[in-house]
Design brief:
Structural class: alpha/beta
Protein name: Adenosylhomocysteinase
Radius of gyration: 31 Å
EC number: 3.13.2.1
Largest sheet: 8 strands, mixed
Distance between the termini: 86 Å
GO molecular function, one term: adenosylhomocysteinase activity
Number of strands: 15
Number of helices: 21
Strand order of the largest sheet: 9-8-7-10-11-14-13-12
Pathway: Amino-acid biosynthesis; L-homocysteine biosynthesis; L-homocysteine from S-adenosyl-L-homocysteine: step 1/1
GO biological process, one term: one-carbon metabolic process
Shape: globular
Helix content: 40-55%
């Protein structure tokens, strides 16, 4: 290297060192300004610091910031901060229409008409029908088996003349079922079985097509029963079939409209709570119509109850609390199919899971699956999360809630809101603080906070969503049960509670196998004879436990 080149290189190094030193001085100035406790830095000072950094000239290329002062003065306004806070805290399961300006007005006080001129419905906002239709179209993509059943039976109209009154969760997946029933010839009127689970835009979409829907998210108790009554008690229309989830609709008709109830041709019930009510009526000799217990059908119990809850329990807890599951101590009350699904999911994410049980068989299953079976009082002070899924009442009492640790989460995965003694928490000494949709802090006098989700109602459908494919299995089972009861010859079903025929369970399963490109093995004549089976099923006796 020549002496001239060497000198030039030394000059560049010297200049670069000077640049670095000046930048360090600027950084020191900025640092001193930010850490000083006795002075406040205004926006002009902040801009001058960054301008000073920006105007240093590098050796080869000048770096500039365009409108740097403007960038650092763009802080949210007060209104903007409120909007940002709302967007963060608002539950992602809130209906699209919850942002409408008339959100505080009760749907009962509105006069709404769909595009066909009908006002025989009561939903949050009929104008959201287009958005609800998109939700339904998405659900249809993963409910191919139900759509297949619709196409196969549509020409035969097996439900022609059926007048079905339904009380279920009103979601996009349920809408696919309702529209399938209508395509098969039925007239439908619908209400919600849960005051928090209705998707407002979906209810609007159904109302737009002519289905009489009476439901919206956030109903009061009075609204809930009013909606059921409006579905049942309407001039010129009398139901002859019931599709229920929880038994509230059946109970209302039995008590309020006994003459109408006696003319019902069949009831289809899909929940543990509702089935329990039906068996009570049957045992007392008061059940005057045949009923189908869908909850205990294989395709409902082994798929919806287990696999659906295995995924949706995590979804519901994450959306509402953003909780980290790893290392958390969780107690799951009940180890039926719902409890099994919840425990499996939580264990897979690293939670320490305890189980409470009254049934020695279920308790033994929990032990064999690696869970410690305890009494709730033994762990109540140490657990981070309590999940109930028993179908019972007062599983978690006020005394136990009093002893829970600060920040503990309490939620329910059973159908009814009876499992957690929420009523005992509505007392003057306790403060309720709404955090976000379906999330409340219940605050004790000493400052302890317990996080209560969905006010003790069903967590997954109140606070999140459930897997569409699994709901397709349940919906297809419900549709077939309605078809079977409606078309059954007189005398086949007496005034009692029945399980879905095994052949129908297998048919529902076979419709869904095509989604996985599954190929069933066929029995040879010799094998079928050896087992004493029909080659086309049913393949298991009714007493078989899957």
């Amino acid at each position: 290297m020549s002496e001239a080149a060497t000198a030039e290189a030394k000059l560049e190094v010297k200049q670069a060192s000077k640049e670095v030193k000046e930048s360090e001085n600027v950084a020191e100035k900025y640092s001193a300004m930010t850490v000083s406790k006795n002075s406040e830095m205004n926006m002009g000072e902040l801009s001058s610091v960054f301008s000073a950094v920006a105007t240093h000239k590098p050796v080869k290329k000048q770096i500039t910031f365009v409108e740097d002062k403007q960038e650092f003065s763009r802080f949210p306004t007060k209104a903007g901060r409120r909007s940002l806070s709302r967007s963060i805290s608002q539950s992602s399961t809130d209906s699209y229409s919850s942002d409408s300006s008339d959100d505080e007005t009760s749907p009962r006080d509105k006069t709404q008409v769909n595009s066909k001129g009908s006002s025989d419905f009561c939903v949050k906002n009929i104008k959201q029908a287009e958005f609800g239709r998109r939700e339904i179209e998405i659900a249809e993509q993963d409910m191919t088996a139900l759509i297949s059943l619709r196409k196969r039976a549509q020409s035969e109209k097996p439900l022609a003349g059926a007048k079905i009154v339904g009380c279920t969760h009103i979601t996009a997946q349920t809408a696919v079922l309702i529209e399938t029933l209508a395509a098969l010839g039925a007239q439908c009127r619908w209400t919600a079985c849960n005051i928090y689970s209705t998707q407002n835009e979906v209810a609007a979409a159904l109302s737009e097509t002519g289905v009489a829907v009476f439901a919206w998210k956030g109903e009061s108790e009075d609204d809930f029963w009013w909606c059921i009554d409006r579905c049942v008690n309407t001039e010129g229309w009398q139901p002859n079939m019931i599709l229920d989830d929880g038994g509230d609709l059946t109970h209302w008709m039995y008590k309020k409209y006994p003459n109408v109830f006696k003319k019902i041709r069949g009831i289809v019930e899909e929940s543990v709570t509702g089935v329990h009510r039906l068996y009570q009526l049957s045992k007392a000799g008061k059940l005057c119509v045949p009923a189908m217990n869908v909850n205990d059908s294989v395709t409902k119990q082994k798929f919806d109850n287990l696999y659906c809850c295995r995924e949706s329990i995590l979804d519901g807890l994450k959306r509402t609390t953003d909780v980290m599951f790893g290392g958390k101590q969780v107690v799951v009350c009940g180890y039926g199919e719902v409890g099994k699904g919840c425990c499996a999911a939580l264990k897979a994410l690293g939670s320490i899971v305890y189980v409470t049980e009254i049934d020695p068989i279920c308790a033994l299953q929990a032990c064999m699956d690696g869970f410690r079976v305890v009494k709730l009082n033994e762990v109540i002070r140490q657990v981070d999360i309590i999940i109930t899924c028993t179908g019972n009442k007062n599983v978690v009492t006020r005394d136990q809630l009093d002893r829970m640790k600060n920040g503990a989460i309490v939620c329910n995965m059973g159908h009814s809101n009876t499992e957690i003694d929420v009523a005992s928490l509505r007392t003057p000494e306790l403060t309720w603080e709404r955090v976000r949709s379906q999330v409340d802090h219940v605050i004790w006098p000493d400052g302890k906070r317990v996080i209560l989700l969905a006010e003790g109602r069903l967590l997954n459908l109140s606070c999140s969503t459930v897997p569409t494919f699994v709901l397709s299995i349940t919906a297809t089972t419900q549709a077939l049960a309605l078809i079977e009861l409606y078309n059954a010859p007189e005398g086949r079903y007496k005034k009692d509670v029945y399980l879905l025929p095994k052949k129908m369970d297998e048919y529902v399963a076979s419709l869904h196998l095509t989604t996985f490109d599954a190929h069933l093995t066929e029995l040879s004549d010799e094998q079928a004879k050896y087992l004493g089976l029909n080659k086309n099923g049913p393949f298991k006796p009714n007493y078989y436990r899957y």
